[in-house]
Amino acid sequence: MDEVFKALADASRRSLLDRLHAENGQTLNELCDGLAMTRQAVTKHLAILEAANLVSTVKRGREKLHYLNPLPIHRIGERWIRKFERGKLQALSDLKRKLESSDE
Amino acid sequence: MSKPQFVYVIYIRTTAQKLWDALIDPAMNQKYWFGAHQESDWKTGSSWKIVFPDGRVADAGEIMEVDPSKRLVIKWRNEFSPELKAEGYSRCTIEIEPADGAVKLTVTHVLDGDGTKFIEAISGGWPVILSNLKSLIETGDIAVVPIKK
Question: What distance in Å separates residue B143's CA from the closest CA in chain A?
Fold first, then answer.
């Protein structure tokens, strides 16, 4: 799981995951749109995310669609969050989001 | 071809044959699928359903493609919630590929209609099911275990 943490330890890569979280199944062009990153940089970051299994892809015709794959993050959560803590953590997280209006 | 709503990928240290058996065996299903299991004879054109522990049918449909230990395509519709059922059929594709001493399991759903409720419901379930399946196959238990990757 080292590669998961390495992949997540970069603000640009987290912002790419945020973009996929907002809209899943985007092409490289769509992901680059409106970003202050070069196409080459986005391609490089996506390769790191894909190697860490945080991004999954499918080919559709000549296009490659990118998806947020939540499985590695889910496994990390399962490892350290006990079943009975989930409800309380959700309530705290909702409260934080409500009070701060943006949850970074 | 319409666009999949999600593409889930998990790597499991096992063989394609063992993973396939775990996917289609009702007794195995119950251990990682919230106690539910699937019923089908796993032939193209056969009926398929997911049955809750209390016997109610959760989802139902038809086997569209089957290539044992490699690929399974299911025509899939929710049955227990009128709201989700109204969104119609989805296509679930399950693929197994060898991956460097492990197998790569990919699950995608393509929805025929425009609804969002079914995908929302199902995307809450799959990560837990797939993660439980990985733990069960690799350790024989779905209890929380350290991830070695």
Answer: 9
Write the residue in B4, B108, B130 that is nearest to A71 by C-beta: B130
Chain A hits for B131, CB-CB cut-off 8 Å, are 71, 74-75, 78
ipTM score here?
A: 0.83
- What are residue A26's DSSP bridge partners? A66
What three-state secondary structure class fits A27? coil
pTM listed for this prediction: 0.87
What mean pLDDT is reported for chain A? 91
Q: Give the model confidence (pLDDT) of B56-100 as tens digits.
A: 999 999 999 999 999 999 999 999 999 999 999 999 999 999 998
